[in-house]
Amino acid sequence: MKFKSHSEVAGTFENLSISILDTEKLLAFSVGDGEIFISKGMIRLLKSEGEFVFVISHEFGHVALGHHLNKTKGSRAEIEADRFALSTISKLGYPPSSALSALISTYGITEFLTNSDLYSNIHGDELIHPSLNTRLDSLREVFSTLDDVNNHTNDPTKRQFYSFKMSL
């Protein structure tokens, strides 16, 4: 199965917007017109700015890769968006491990480390996310292709995520 890479994505997105939902539910999703939504609960769950940027980049990946337009759903769309986000955070200087820790945090380490699939909170019982192990394995395949995986800036004086998170 071939997945689209970050470099295959064309176009610009002038109307990209991010809205914070006032709920403790763990939500992050995008709609086709460039709107991304993330809940306060999701932001509070994430442990670093790198994890936050991964989640936002994942949702932007759905928009940039045209998943809403071509109605790509399920495992394929999620893995493509994960890979897009991993490439994005790496290029922005965040540790690629932020992708793995964000996924582990959002799935819940005890509940989804098995091959359990995740059903959508928004779309009822529609299966839209592959198992955590499937997603982690897919990202690990990409790690070797990243430029200088271990040389990423993580200077706490340049990262304001903790202050942002505490202000919610």
Secondary-structure-based class equals alpha+beta
Count of beta strands: 5
Please outline the major beta sheet: 3 strands, mixed
What share of residues is helical?
40-55%
| CA(first)-CA(last) distance | 41 Å
| Multimeric organization | single chain
Task: Give the strand line-up of the largest sheet.
Answer: 1-3-2
Q: Give the radius of gyration.
A: 15 Å
Strand content: 5-15%
Number of helices: 6
What does this structure look like?
- By secondary structure, this protein is an alpha+beta fold.
- 41% of the residues lie in helices and 11% in strands.
- The chain has helices at residues 40-45, 49-64, 74-91, 97-107, 132-143, 161-166; strands at 17-21, 28-30, 35-39, 118-119, 127-129.
- Strand 2 (28-30) and strand 3 form a beta hairpin.
- Helix 2 crosses helix 4, helix 3 packs across helix 5 (132-143) and helix 4 (97-107) packs antiparallel against helix 5.
Descriptive tags:
3-stranded mixed β-sheet; alpha+beta; 5 strands; globular; 168 residues; single chain; disordered N terminus
Note the topology.
Layout: E1 17-21, E2 28-30, E3 35-39, H1 40-45, H2 49-64, H3 74-91, H4 97-107, E4 118-119, E5 127-129, H5 132-143, H6 161-166
Parallel strand pairs: 1-3
Antiparallel strand pairs: 2-3, 4-5
